[in-house]
Amino acid sequence: MAILGPVSLWRSLLPGSRKKKIAEFTALNDLAGLGRPRNGNLIDGTALIAGGSISGLLTARVCSSHFSRVLVVEPESWASTADGRSHAARFPKGENQKRSNPRTRIPQYIAPHNYQVFTYLALKEMFPEFEAQSLKIDLNTIVPCNLQFHPSGKHVRSPVDFYNGTLPKFLAITRHGYETLLRNLLKLTCPNVEFVVGTVTGLNVGRHPDRDSTQHIIESVTIRSQEGLKITEPAAVVVDCTGSSTAAIKWLSVLPDPVIVPKQVHDPKMRYTNCEYIVDPAIMEKVDFPGGYANASMIYLFHPDYRMEHRTLLIWKREHNALQFVCGGWDLTDRPRSIADLRNFMRRIKSAEPLPNYLFQIMDALEDNECDRSATYNDIRASPSHFVKYHEIVERLPTNLIAIGDSVIKLNPVKGQGCTKAMIGAVTLAAVLHECDQIPHAKYAQRILPPSFGKIFWSRQNKRTKSIWEQFKHEDYGWNTTIPAEGEDLSQGAFMRWYTRNLFSVASKNDDVAAVVYNCAMFLAPGSDVLAPGIVLRVVWAGVKVVFSVYHEQPYLLNHFYRSILASLGDVPIQDEVEAY
After folding, report:
1. Nearest-5° angle of CA 169, CA 527, CA 464?
2. Where is the stretch described as Disordered (predicted)?
């Protein structure tokens, strides 16, 4: 869930309709345009996309509706083979069924992934065959999104009543399965999308032909092929989807008139181990899971209170009976290598409410049936988080250069926002392209995007994704092992942490507030919804009650009351607060 950052927060409190907030802070209004063909002729040129992972594939689908040709430049040759489109390639052949990672540039390729409801809604609009192709992989790839969210162990129920008994659907699939699915859908529905193995190494720019524009435009790019040959490819638009490589920063820095792009970086030192077991559902018949293990998709999502714990635990089921665990944390040293290790990890977790007994029943069932024999344990050391601030230097950027996904904002991966953030960028691009009329380009005797294209896109995407960055950066600052961004310190974001913590506490007791939290977390509502007056009053009262209950029971702390309020906006000794709950 992304609560609005400080500036957006105050703007959200100003008079204005909720419809305006939905349009400004979400991409919900743009979903209907995803499947709509372009009004008029396609742009006669190539949309060149650097990077063929999730953001690149989504961008290719969007561009296929607007450009006569789409070229995806992907450095990993494996992605262009038959295995790159085969879901069965996820399971190695032979005696050793443990998975390896065929995507050497994407460490998280075999890591567990979760996707918000917004992604499902967008895929339905993008691809008419989406649901049919998904269900071919497994009948449980599209299911109701029952989150099983437990901040500090307190269950925030999914809003079944709010949705009249049927929760919104979501895509419950592995990261490998998602990428394979997208490649197959592109092949089925987008004949103008081509793939080439190589790397974009540079931009060739010229002055934009619009007489009122002082900016440059990319006329072509240089590509280094798999064989090491340099190729020049004309481009009507260039999209950086290279993820953590943030290749556009390098391209811009070597132009004749170099452009230096501001970039904010912090390091939460996130470490985690992915544990996967292929489980026969029959062995879980005795597990007392709410609603039954066989009907579950999400098993347990534990988010720690930074004042008492640095471990996080995520458990869910995916296609073909895969049971996946993420044992992670801020500056974590644990590295589970067995079911026994995983059980010990769970037992050491500190929370306001204990982990439910059914989790340990699952561990017993795994151990009794020797599931360790086919288990996969994969350690990941996440790279630092970053925010590339292209929106601050729009006037210096080529008008037809944009970036989507991790190329702009890379978050702490345990938050599970990366793929949805990429989708928000792709949906935003689709709407901007629908709005942009072509203008003549005398040099090439064709029509091109107007000089306003980049400005509109950068402004709109930033409004919709900046709050995600602010929310999770400041959440990372709750752990004293985090290395903050330059010029900042870990005290920043204290109010946001306090508000979020008490919001979750209220949501665990109030189904109406829980519904708002759910909708914001699924990107079905703007983050400003959690700042509605009724919710703010409940959250503030919850925080005040905790503070006063602690100081009433321990009068000797009264001398520190105001200092505590001012310094940490309500943080009190954690054991006292847990007891007060």
Report:
1. 90
2. 84-104
**pTM of this structure:** 0.90
Secondary structure (3-state) at 7: helix
Q: Using CB atoms within 10 A of its CB, is residue 395 exposed (0-12), middle (13-18) or buried (19+)?
A: exposed
Dmax (CA) for the chain in angstroms is 81
Residue 551 clears pLDDT 70, i.e. is over it: no
The answer to whether 98 and 374 are in contact (CB under 8 A) is yes
Sign of CA dihedral 574, 359, 116, 57: positive
CATH T-level assignment (fold) for domain 34-113+178-266+385-476: FAD/NAD(P)-binding domain (3.50.50)
Residue 8 predicted with pLDDT over 50: no
Residue 349, phi then psi, degrees to nearest 5 = -65, 130
Question: Which residue has tokens 């709407």?
Answer: 431
Is a pLDDT exceeding 80 seen at residue 260? yes
Distances (CA, A) of 30 to 70, 232, 425, 523: 22, 34, 11, 13
pLDDT of 80 reads 80
Q: What is the pLDDT of residues 393-413, one digit of tens each?
A: 999 999 999 999 999 999 998
pLDDT in tens, 482-500: 999 999 999 999 999 999 9
Tokens of 346: 């769970």
Domain ranges of the chain: 34-113+178-266+385-476, 144-171+269-381, 494-580
Q: How far apart are CA 177 and CA 134, in angstroms?
A: 9
The sign of the dihedral angle between the CA atoms of 231, 236, 240, 242 is negative
Closest CA to 438 of 420, 423, 450: 450
